[in-house]
Amino acid sequence: MIDIKKIEQNFEAVKKNLEMRGFETSKLDEVLSFNSSRKDLLKNIEAKRAQLNQASKKIGELIKAGEDPQSAKEDVNNIKSSMQSDEEKLKSFEEKLTSVLSEIPNLIDEDTPIGSDEESNVELSSWGEVPTFSFEVLDHVDLGEKLGMLDFQTAAKLTGARFVVYKHLLARLERAIANYMIDFHLDRDYEEIIPPFIVNSDSLYGTGQLPKFGEDLFKLENTDWYLIPTAEVPVTNLKKKEIVPINELPLKYVAHTPCFRSEAGSYGRDTRGLIRMHQFNKVEMVQITTKEKSEAAHEEMIDSAKKILEGLGLPYRAMRLCTGDIGFGSRKTIDLEVWIPSQDKYREISSISNCWDFQARRAKIRYKADGKNEFVHTLNGSGLAVGRTLVAILENYQQEDGSIKVPEVLIPYMRGVEIIKKS
């Protein structure tokens, strides 16, 4: 959530920034209108509170003087009634103000590339050589099904489309990838978290998924509970409504969880295979830090995701997201895209965002600095999406006979298996 003071004091700058996102800035006028009404009511309430104090004091003086206090008592009751009416109006304006503010996306860095969609994202760097093959390349679906280890048909029978059953060595490979990623982050002083996979609406509001993206979520019927779309939600909210001692910052968390997404806005994209599933596993990084250290934390998280891909020997590129592709709660996002041979292009495997204090204002996460409470900065990023990493390994390490060479760093996690081939 954007600080209301920033909107008031820098209205034109905020408006220009949000226009870069393509956001309808008339909501800013609503914010100022509701906030102006809120301030007027606060002044009225304070003035009436002073009147109430005087009227109450007068009752005591009249009683002490032996005079009838009835008129003064009526004044007190009238003032109280008027105050109650104003307080109800104040509550209504505060709710309206919060509602409108919650629909406004985060401000973006001024150097964010301008563009309407992913085609305008800017490549910052790349690593690794794109592999060449002397045989016809298969995609991960054909590879997995020929091995008898990716079963979409049975998953459809069990649940429906966009689910899968991993079997045998590909089930082990999926787990090996996650364990490798977790161990990597532990070596970088991250604390491992296993959070609930179900959260309430307040937690989703805190990280910005609600109210705007409700259709992308799986809600449990007749409850206030939702399946998590990403570990970012429960892990960031670990400190909601708290003041974190500054000596505890930064907080660095890593979590391996399933993620559940309805993919309501995907419109039939990537319906084949593991790229866009309703349920998938992901290793997530979250950092909670001070405003002075958030940019360094962002760079460190990007470096972590890069080093994992390099350890796996997977070619990738780093992309700076443009104004039309950056997420609702992000101020700055770097995507890492891994090479997918069957598609002859790079695909996103990690999105690493610095949200500044946007989520912290919604979730009420603060720290004390120089005797003053400040909002923390929150950051999140995939480290990495496990299923997409498996896709990249299957396709980049495929052999002519349909077997899969296991990346060297994963062999210990695979109990010594170096080649995955049909049993």
What does this protein look like?
This protein is an alpha+beta fold. It folds into two domains: 4-102, Helix Hairpins; 118-420, Bira Bifunctional Protein, Domain 2 (BirA Bifunctional Protein, domain 2). The chain is 40% helix and 21% strand. It is built from twelve helices and 17 strands. The strands form five sheets. Strands 1-10-11-12-15-9-8-4 form an eight-stranded mixed beta sheet. Strands 7-13-14 form a three-stranded mixed beta sheet. The protein has a two-stranded antiparallel sheet with strand order 2-3. A hairpin with a 2-residue loop joins strand 13 (365-369) and strand 14. Helix 3 (26-64) runs antiparallel to helix 4 and helix 7 packs across helix 12. The two termini are 54 Å apart.
Q: Using the 3D structure, state the CATH architecture of the largest domain.
A: 2-Layer Sandwich
Radius of gyration: 27 Å
CATH topology of the largest domain: BirA Bifunctional Protein, domain 2
Structural class of the secondary structure composition? alpha+beta
- Please estimate the helix content: 25-40%
> How are the strands ordered across the major sheet?
1-10-11-12-15-9-8-4
Shape: elongated
- Low-confidence spans: pLDDT under 50, at least 5 residues? none
Report, as a whole number of angstroms, the end-to-end distance.
Answer: 54 Å
Q: How many runs of DSSP E, i.e. beta strands? A: 17
As for the number of domains, it is 2
Please state the average pLDDT score.
Answer: 95
